[in-house]
């Protein structure tokens, strides 16, 4: 019955599809309209992105962001826009809370539940960081990256390997911590970068 229902839906959609109607039908005109609109919006987006990158390049911190393997010019400019001047944060914990990556722990007696992030911070910054970490993993052969190393350590940890999303969030947290230290100390990324010698409180 379920298969029959899907088949009926597909037949109905096929009747309204582009090949099933005349070339001068309203459906064809509608498709053309939305195609033109999509092309125009894409051009506007590309123009805004270019302007955003040009503006971000005027700031010293832009060079620190793009020195991080996996963070390109567009992502760097977007992160700068969403995070602002991160040197205003005294610690990485404050920055994580601003983005919404701080953990919410619940315990009641001997019981409890799995930790999860608060998500009360900046949702756009979280998405950008998630994208950036994913990009680091995809481009791992282009340049050494300690965030990628950390990701695989978590995924292969025994006896309890971390799930992909849990490992990704941990890497997002570590990336923010590293960026804060780099920017506060005017240091570009280098492999195995740690802030253990810095004065940034973590």
From TrEMBL:
Residues 67-140 form the Transposase IS116/IS110/IS902 C-terminal domain. Signal peptide: none annotated. It comes from the Bacteria. One of its GO terms (biological process) is DNA transposition. One of its GO terms (molecular function) is transposase activity. Pfam families: Transposase_20. This is ISSep1 transposase.
């Amino acid at each position: 019955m379920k298969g029959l229902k899907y088949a009926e839906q597909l037949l109905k959609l096929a009747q309204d599809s582009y090949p099933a109607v005349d070339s001068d039908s309203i459906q064809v005109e509608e498709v053309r309209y939305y195609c033109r609109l999509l092309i125009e919006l894409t051009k506007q987006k590309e123009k805004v992105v270019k302007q955003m990158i040009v503006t971000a390049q005027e700031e010293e911190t832009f060079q620190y962001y793009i020195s991080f393997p996996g963070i390109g010019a567009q992502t760097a400019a977007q992160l700068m826009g969403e995070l602002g001047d991160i040197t205003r944060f005294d610690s990485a914990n404050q920055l994580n809370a601003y983005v919404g990556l701080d953990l919410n722990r619940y315990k009641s007696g001997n019981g409890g539940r799995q930790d999860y992030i608060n998500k009360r911070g900046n949702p756009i910054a979280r998405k950008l960081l998630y994208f950036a970490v994913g990009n680091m993993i995809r481009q791992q052969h282009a340049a050494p990256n300690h965030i990628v190393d950390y990701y695989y350590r978590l995924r292969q940890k025994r006896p309890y390997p971390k799930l992909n999303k849990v490992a990704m969030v941990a890497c997002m947290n570590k990336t923010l911590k590293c960026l804060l230290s780099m920017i506060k100390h005017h240091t570009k990324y280098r492999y195995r970068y740690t802030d253990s010698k810095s004065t940034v409180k973590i």
